[in-house]
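Fold Annotation — chain and its backbone

Fields — amino acid sequence, structure tokens

___
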Amino acid sequence: MTLLAGRDATATDGDIRAVVVRSFRSEKWIQWGVAIIVALLVLAPLLPVLYQSVADKALYERHVGLTLQNFYHLVSDEAFLTALGNSLMFAILGTLIAQGVGGIIAVLVGRTDMPLRGVVAALIIWPLFLSQLVITTGWMIVYGPAGYVTTWVKILGLPIPWNLYTVPGMAVAAAVCQVPITFIYCLTAIRSSDPALEDSARAAGLRPFQIFRRITLPLLRPALTISAILNVVMLLEALSIPLILGRPANIDLLMSFIYTRGMSVSNPDYGLIAASAVLLMTIVIVLASAQILLLRRPQRFVTIGGKANRPRPFLLGRWRWAAFGVVGLYLVFLIALPLIGLITYAFASFLTPLVPIMDVLTLDNFRRIIDTHEYMNALTNSLIIATCGGASATVLITLLALVVHRSRFPLRRMLDIGALLPRAVPGMIAGIGIFYTTILIPPLGWLRETLALIMIAFTMRYIPLGYGVVAAATLKLDTQLDRSARVLGADWWLTMRRIVIPLLLPAMISAYGILFIYFFKDYGTAVFLSSPGSEVLGTTMLQMFLSGQTGPAAALATIQIAITAVFILVIRRVAGVSLHD
């Protein structure tokens, strides 16, 4: 069967030229259309924020002038300088914890004979599927001043060794959310590296710890570098932890500083907010540039051979179960227990070890969710955004990967770089920038307070996430497939549609699964975009928790966990794809 079945074999030269011209035009329309859409998505939140940072008044006012006073006021604001110092301490400390825990567990799972390694690998990544808001809520319920475990420790007369209302306490809670990033990067590096060097070290008589220090750790250095920079960036843009744990103790971080100046006052100082956002983006861009420079010559870090041997695990001997016990304590006390506490609180009027759990069980929190239109509307909106927004973003990202890697589009290299730029824009800053865009361009004003605008913001925010999945799969396809189709007379779009896209279907499903989860759990990007009627799950839960409605907030978080778990199960079993490999 030929791609050109049904085409008249006796077509004249003029007919063939007409078909070629039409095919060329359709190809260029698609490629330029994708390029323009991606450029608008990437630049939309950046340019308005930069403009507002040097504007002497809000962008919606008339006769806006240029000034640097916003930056002067910012650097002379003692509260900002304190928030900046707290953010840097929080991000660095949280990253160090995440790197240590994630790297060690990755080595235990990927290079040792520790029992139940598959179970550990499946459980440790779960914080990646949930928002920091959900995990923070669980930590407060279990380890807060009146938390379940905290109360037990007080009953036993023991000193409380933790305090969540400090920068180190917040960093520990945040690190649990970042450990999966380090774990995945390090585990991938371990599984793809040649174990010959470790085998040689064993033959030379080195002990396991010496092999780890001299061989395995240098092999992990690129993965640790990349994940460390990603973790610093993600911790700098954290919002729920600073608001829930920091604000009650009067500890401001950068994102809570911007949030309170923009959301908690009747007359926001948009110039100061934009200047803060520009400074934060500058820090992120510097970190991303440092990552590129550090990994410019990866041969400095590793020496990997070309043999594809199966790794030989370190034999831990009698320490096998001890290692699993330590990892198990981490999984139980830092991941499982907070989530169990959160879910239990959702089914209780209150939670304390002083009262038997059976005496406080109730479904009132869920009834309140069902009976409150605002809460159900937020749940429905989040499902619509995740389902439809994730699907449309997947289509756009797939077309972007095809234009960059399977076409001769003249600007494809610039598109490849531009697709990664949203990494340098924290979620809440992206929301602020898109909000400013609707102000600067009046015809876009109708998008405000709509789900469409939130979908656009989420799409811009997560282009790099989906692009990394689809582009990697695209590069694995042999270009001979394209050439063969072109020899048979197929144009670029027909080749992509009939041959390349069907082969990319598993990668597209994986990208959609990842985008669905991130669209469903994101809230920072929507903080400045949601309004009555367009609430999303995260922003609603954040407001509920800040107003003291812990029970209903826990019920809503439990619903979010259940939907996420069902979605992951379905996409793994039905579609047969993994969301983290």
Observations:
- The chain has 23 helices and no strands.
- The CA atoms of residues 116 and 558 lie 27 Å apart.
